[in-house]
Amino acid sequence: MNHDQRKDWDTYFMDIAYMVSTRSRCDRRHVGAVLVQGKKLLGTAYNGAPSGVPDCSEAGCMISEEYELVIQDGKETMVKKQRCIRTIHAEQNLLLFTDRIDREGSSVYVTDEPCWTCANMLANSGITEIVFHRPYPKDTDKVRAMLEQVGIRFRRLDTYQPPQETITAVEN
């Protein structure tokens, strides 16, 4: 990057979200989120176990198995999914550690597209925009439709390149 060139705001805030994600101790995925009002950073959060509780790197993942009906090649199939329930998602932590007044009219930059539960919570949080990088296709359609209904802008930075030092073997 040329010395005179500055990063655009989307890149700047997404870089911060990725730096925040490096605090995560989750073995499956490191996720970071930041709250921004205008150009002012108001809060950061990452995914992990509740404070004071051993995290996945210490106690192992707390796996919950669920069955999901999936349509593949026009045929309904039951697929077993595993997910860790020890971890509080980055978006949820961001909501827990920021004030409603700061969220009003703000944007959330998050390394990963929010799941349905996080999108639902963000929809009621006062924010007006969600900007993400890595897709989460499982929930995209219903999340996009719901956020459109409530008037929250939802954008993916698909050409964004995260800082190399923030990428772990977990995400590669």
From TrEMBL:
Q: Which Gene Ontology CC terms are recorded?
A: cytoplasm
Record-linked Pfam families? dCMP_cyt_deam_1
> Family, per the entry?
Belongs to the cytidine and deoxycytidylate deaminase family.
Annotated GO biological process: pyrimidine nucleotide metabolic process
Per the entry, which co-factors are needed?
Answer: Zn(2+)
- What positions constitute the catalytic site? 91
Residues recorded as binding Zn(2+), renumbered to this chain, are 89, 115, 118
For the keyword Ribosomal protein, the answer is: no
Keywords of the record:
Hydrolase, Metal-binding, Zinc
PROSITE patterns, from UniProt? CYT_DCMP_DEAMINASES_1, CYT_DCMP_DEAMINASES_2
Q: Name one GO molecular function term.
A: dCMP deaminase activity
State the InterPro entries in the record: APOBEC/CMP_deaminase_Zn-bd, CMP_dCMP_dom, Cytidine_deaminase-like, dCMP_deaminase, dCMP_deaminase-rel, Deoxycytidylate_deaminase_dom
Claim: Cytoplasm is one of the keywords in the record: no
| Name the UniProt record assigns to this protein | dCMP deaminase family protein
Q: Taking every annotated instance into account, which residue ranges of this chain make up the domain CMP/dCMP-type deaminase?
A: 8-157
Coiled coil ranges (UniProt) are none
